[in-house]
Design brief:
By secondary structure, the chain is α/β, with parallel strands linked by helices. It folds into two domains: 275 residues, Aldehyde Dehydrogenase, Chain A, domain 1 (3-Layer(aba) Sandwich), CATH 3.40.605.10; 188 residues, Aldehyde Dehydrogenase, Chain A, domain 2. Helix content is 36%, strand content 21%. It contains 16 helices and 20 strands. The strands form five sheets. Strands 14-15-16-13-12-17-18 form a seven-stranded mixed sheet, sandwiched between helices. Strands 9-8-7-10-11-19 form a six-stranded mixed sheet, with helices on both faces. A three-stranded antiparallel sheet has the order 5-6-20, with no helix packed on it. Strand 8, helix 7 and strand 9 form a beta-alpha-beta unit. Helix 1 runs parallel beside helix 8, helix 2 packs antiparallel against helix 5 and helix 2 packs across helix 7. The radius of gyration is 23 Å and the shape is globular. The termini are far apart. Bound molecules: nicotinamide-adenine-dinucleotide. Nicotinamide-adenine-dinucleotide (NAD) binds next to helix 8 and helix 9.
Length: 488
Amino acid sequence: MSEAPESRLLIDGKLTDAQSGKTFANVNPATEEVVGQVADGGVEDMDAAIAAARRAFDETDWSTDRAFRKTALQQLVDALDRHKDDLRPHIVAEVGCPIMLTYAVQLDSCVTDMQWDIDMLDRMEWEYDLPVHEFMGMRSSRRVFREPVGVVGAITPWNFPFMLNVSKLGPALAAGNTVVLKPAPDTPWSATMIGKIIAEETDIPAGVVNIVASGDKAAVGEVLTGDPRVDMISFTGSTGVGKRIMARGAETVKKVFLELGGKSANIILDDADLDGAAMGGMMICIHGGQGCAITTRMLLPESRYDEGVEKLAGAFSMVPYGDPMDMSNIMGPLVNAAQYEKVLGMIERAKADGAKCLVGGGPAEQFDKGYFVQPTLFVDVDPESELAQDEVFGPVLAVIKYKDDDDAVRIANNSRYGLSGAVSSASLDRALGVAKRIRTGTVSVNGGGWFGPDSPFGGYKESGVGREHGVAGFEEYLETKTVGLPAD
Ligand code: NAD
């Protein structure tokens, strides 16, 4: 692999080391080797980044000059597109994700999808008039303006870091905001590499995008969420941290947009194709199960339970995994030692809780190095148990038996989460009917994909507040101003 990529922060238009001069190690989870050192942004760097973003919003034309934004953001998309093959191995090295995913959502498609946000600059109704209205004896016409929120603090996790950074930068910038991006400590390059491209290959003005990587998980992020100069926090990550951010945002009444965890159910109705269901079930292992919207509970009907379990066991025994740089693998290691220990601990507790482990159930000992866990299939899982209720974020499927469609819907909705789900049936209408009863932000019916730059994505319940992507996602980054004018 080529040498370590850009590892400096981007603050007020300059690629810079941390003021403290400190760095932190970026570790490849497949080899446990340090692949590079990254500038370790501290509280003082975050303060400087917020000041730069505030100034760029208040004192430049970025928020008002849509034509310029379009040109500058087009430069960014084109440059990201040109550099895809340079970025690819570094993303795999720090995330441990299978390289095949970088040809899709982990890199290539999110760059393509950013074009959608740029095109919104032309499609958005930035101002419109309402009909004349009489209020307290006075006739007025009203004009509504859509304006950027201001300074956006974007905080992202490690599982799909490049995509999530782009998914926040795209609409936030196109809408006219300035941004301070804080990536996860495990995946700093997925942000700092974007910083270098912005600084060197675009006309995006100094201060419009600031990137503060930090080896500390929370302290530097807490500065961002508490600072009164920041108008909005756009967060993707765990529900626990999301709650903390919501509470912290309340102190300065920030707009808080949250994309959080999930424990999504895949309902296989009793007339469904079980071979397809088993292959779909096995696909939860993609990226080691480290996806928020992965359907990690499979609900099988009592009448076909044994048949379904047998097919699933066959599929789980064949999951191709190992070296993430091997195009044939759908799963590499887990992201770090802590995640590895957490997943193995949940597997052990699931066994103790009485769930039956049919495939896997421990570390993948064929690898000398790396945080590899075996693809793991649990059946006869109690819907109230930890395995059925809590996010594992590992390659672990929990199979739950149900009696009839109503029971399946009840079990699927028996979750504090509400992110995604799936339903399969020989009858599209029947599957759609069940899908409409599921309390989640997205549902796949008979394998249909809900993901797209124009598809609103987000969670009900403790899976989040607000939507990413689509018009709804773009509007998250806008304020609404109504101006009253005397009617003639
Ligand atoms: P995490 O919540 O631990 O961390 C996410 C980010 O928040 C990191 O950048 C972290 O440094 C930062 N952070 C942590 N504490 C903070 C604090 N007190 N103040 C400010 N920032 C803080 O999540 P993770 O372990 O990086 O990622 C996995 C989680 O992300 C899973 O729960 C997964 O479901 C969720 N996720 C959700 C979506 C979605 O769109 N709904 C997408 C991807 C991941």
